Structure prediction request, 293 residues.
Amino acid sequence: MDLNLLRTFLSVYETGSLTRSARDLYVTQPSVSHSLAHLRREFSDELFVRRGRGMVPTLLADELYPVVKDSVGSIDNVVLGMKSFDPASSTHRFRLCLSDLGELAFLPQILKTISRDAPEVEIEVVPMDIRLLPDWLTRGSVDAAIASWPLAGEYGGTLLKTEEYVCVLRADYPMAGPELTLDEFLRARHVIVDPVTGHQLAEQAMQALGIVRRSTVVVQHFAVIPELISECNLFAIAPESMARRWLDKWPVRLAALPFDVGAVEVKLYLRANGRESSALAWFRTAVSEALKY
Prediction:
């Protein structure tokens, strides 16, 4: 049987969507439908039935899935292990999962390093959703990710840097003393970044201490924070290295948080495909070298 048909089966099973499968496999939706029709004839079973807006596996599909997944994974590992990777001539595309903060802080240096050694290699940035990231890495939907939140499962990760969180506030905000107090922190209104970006350590610390902020707005991107602070006189929590970049461009200042958060570890995670391919090994090394501090 055509290996691509089995990949289609795995994708439809894991995503429950023909549209998402087409996107993940880089094919059209009619192509996915055609492959599914072929599989149905091959196995004399519907395999997936539409329920609402999704595709639900049949009993036979449930039985087939672990066998097909192991078989395709084993084949991929052998093939990837045999292939050599020449960065100077490769046109490979790597899918790298980043938050918007990661795009601002890491992507320029990564591109600079990779374009020097591998001018034809491409990088596709996938927006971060920390809830879905383990599944993406397991399925190979992304090749790598840079995240500051530990992932569930066997994802050791390569440590890139440690980071501290700080409070960012308007430069003229009237503080009672040189240090921000917990009372001042609680009285202020806050702009909060959605935790799906992977920045959850401060939230976890506050939850443990019973600290509840006055939320004015929840945003999806760190990039909007300095303007919201400047124009709306809000507070925000942000990684110190990024917040310091705002000091020269925006009327903001930094203050130590009035509670202990601890340092966060920023790590590079690779897709879980068993044996590491030469291409992925090169990419891991290139990213690590690009982000040395």
Q: What stands out?
A: The two ends are 49 Å apart (CA to CA). The longest strand covers residues 264-270. Residues 165-262 form a domain with the D-Maltodextrin-Binding Protein; domain 2 fold (CATH 3.40.190.10). The chain has three domains: 3-82, 93-158+266-290, 165-262.
